[in-house]
Fold this sequence. Notes:
Elements: H1 3-15, H2 18-21, H3 34-37, H4 42-49, E1 55-58, H5 65-75, E2 79-84, H6 90-107, E3 111-116, H7 123-134, E4 139-144, H8 148-151, H9 154-158, E5 161-164, H10 170-182, E6 193-195, H11 197-207, H12 211-223, E7 233-235, H13 237-243, H14 256-270, H15 274-287, H16 291-306, H17 313-327, H18 333-345, H19 354-364, H20 377-380, H21 422-444, H22 460-466, H23 473-487, E8 495-498, H24 505-513, E9 518-523, H25 526-536, E10 546-549, H26 552-562, E11 568-574, H27 583-592, E12 594-605, H28 624-637, H29 658-667, E13 670-684, H30 687-693, H31 703-707, H32 713-727, E14 731-745
Parallel strand pairs: 1-4, 1-5, 2-3, 3-4, 6-7, 8-9, 8-11, 9-10, 11-12
Antiparallel strand pairs: 12-14, 13-14
Helix pairs in contact: 6-7, 10-12, 11-12, 11-13, 12-13, 14-15, 15-18, 16-17, 16-18, 17-18, 23-24
Amino acid sequence: MDLFDHSRQEQIGRDAPLAARLRPRTLDEFIGQDAVVGPGRLLRRAIQADQLSSLIFFGPPGTGKTTLAQIIANTTSAHFIALNAVLAGVKDIREAIAAAQDLRGQYGRRTILFIDEVHRFNKAQQDALLPWVENGTVILIGATTENPFFEVNKALVSRSRIFQLKPLEAADLYRVVEQALADSDRGYGDRPIQLDPAALDHLVDVANGDARALLNALELAVETTSPNESGQIQITLEVAEESIQQRAVLYDKEGDAHFDTISAFIKSVRGSDPDAALYWLARMVYAGEDPRFIFRRLVILASEDVGLGDPHAVTVVTSCAAAFDRVGMPEGRYPLAQATLYLATAPKSNSTMGFFDALAAIEQEREQEVPNPMRDGNRDSKGFGHGQGYLYPHAYRDHWVEQQYLPSGLQGQVFYQPSGQGYEASIQTQVTQRREAQLAAMVDGGGALPEALTYSPDDPARDRWLQRTLSQAGEQLGAVRDRIFELAPPQRHHRILDLNARTGLLTWEALRRVPEGGVYARVHTAQDQVALEEQAAQLPEMARPVLVHADFEALAAYLESHTPGVRFERIVGRNTFSQVVNRDRFIAIVQQFLAPGGVVLLAETIPRHSQRISALVREDTLSKALGKRWHQADEAIHGVIPSGIAHSATDPRFNWQAQTLEALFRKAGFTVQLSEAVLHSSIYISAALLQRWFAVGSTPPSYRDQLAQHLSDKDIAAIQQECQRQLQGQTVQWRSPLVYLVGRLSP
């Protein structure tokens, strides 16, 4: 770049719009999008470590897609090439690829190719990128306002990580304005601007999450307002209203906004919420949606979701559509609103879906012949007896008679299930009664040809259940894992802390659930850490969990030093509580690192109520006195004396129960939901397991060590002998009570 080019670039920078001048240059200057670039998030870690893979930024205008790309350009050691898909063609792509190949071949330097509005490339242009992204010649960063899963080459999408940027929150927009008014070099910090609070609120509200629109409006307000007598530029509410006169509604008739909004509208009508239905209707009309498209969807809904709940619904909607065609807009909004409100408040029934069950039967079953009484008797009644046996309903009382109309292989099949809503409720009993009569007619002959009942084939799920092996541990643990994440499903950008990773059961599932977030996992032993590190080594470096071998106090210190300010949307744990010594401090640490709106999810086995070994041995093989002493010792070990009063046990594994956990979290200000379950597992009692049970002086104390506090050595020897005789080599059912805790901080 020569002196003239440098001067020209400086002039362009000075003359650029406010939104361009204030574009953040580093992650620390970037405002909003914590779900994507907040502390501990995957993208932030990747940018800071300069270890980017191909990315696609997807979101509405003004949310920071191009800004993030420029921040990457400012921080990466790779060569950065920027193209705009509106202006560039295949020739530009080839030149960029050639430059990337030269740098890679001569200097081993990577190249990042940023393509703004990547969805505007046609298929051929996108295909031209594919081999170079595939072999690593370039790292692609694409920015698009359209859903990449529909508008971008599927092969490119599969090789890229998608990050969705959302409209900025109001608090973020206030910070943007504050930054613009304070920055003397790039903003208006050198001007005496007085921005009235009402004007600021209006600009933020109408900007609708778009930082660029907000800054453009602010710039227009400042540049077109003359200083007052005191020399200040005062931006009043009136000036703000003139600067940003109408809220821009994001609505692309071929994009996500179109389909998402009509989906919200239909779901609101189906859900009988007239207020939400009117809101989404108004949003579509305001954005310029074709009212005929809306009427088309309402006519479908009138049959699909209202149906026979109100048979007049179709008539009302089609009449409203005809009225709209007569009067047009804007008066046509009245029949549009009337049709919406009628359907939203009508009783709902989707019994017409029975037609699709009938279609499925046609597709899956062998074609059935028309029963002889149902055949056309006008042509072949004499030769083949077609139509013989048919009972004419109008010849009978109520114009109905018991006879079968289905093919023989489908007799007894039910497709139509009347609901208990509206009109359909009045015919529900009648339909059921007539079916019962038809079934009786079918069995008895009822005027039709003798036909036998057929039964459905054996349930394959039941057969699989019968074929299961005795060991159900893996399946049950999987069910526990799935239950934890079902109680409060995380979003893709969430950060998750696993309080007790151990085997990685929750950690690996967390990684699958939050591909754009981050997972931190605490391990209790160095052995567990080594095992998890070996498994994590199979993953790309940036996709691995952060493993921390520490107690809870050291974990808190590590998190603050490793990722300052990190907070977690989900804190999960399985069998964590029994490791806790200082329980109040443990709750405080969990509370400290829980993000606003975050959820604590714990699954805790309660050893206090778990399987008693004494219950596995037949009582008649021991003396009654020894059996009683053994049972009492078992109860005492688990923190309960025979009378059922809580025992003052000090072992943290046994001196708590579900209510203890609930009370501690409530004391800390959490709202708590508890649910309990009991796992029944098949356990094989091996000689090695028995040896561990009756080991002497082990850490933690063995079952024998705990029995020794209540029984004599002679009693223990007799018990051990009987366990070896009865249990060794046997598979027993082991009972494990489980409590699930869902904790949320009270607002």
